[in-house]
Design a protein that fits this description.
By secondary structure, the protein is mainly α. It is 67% helix and 0% strand. The chain has two helices and no strands. It has helices spanning 3-24, 41-65.
Length: 70
């Protein structure tokens, strides 16, 4: 088992948790109903894209750290 890749994957998952907890949770894209307060639609979608990439990276690093026999 490659512990360097395993802990890197865990780090990615921890960063994605804090990213969602403190940056994305409770935010809405700016629209007429909320008086254009908040990130633009393209920035909001990009923020979710970063979160998805962090989660996928964490899972992939954890899977790569497993022995080849599995």
């Amino acid at each position: 088992m490659d512990y360097k890749l395993f802990f890197l994957g865990i780090l990615f998952l921890i960063v994605s948790y804090f990213y969602h907890r403190f940056l994305l949770q409770g935010t809405e894209p700016s629209m007429k109903e909320n008086n254009w307060i908040g990130p633009t639609q393209s920035l909001y979608i990009g923020m979710w894209g970063v979160l998805i990439m962090l989660i996928l990276g964490g899972v992939i690093f954890i899977i790569q750290s497993l022995p080849a026999q599995i």
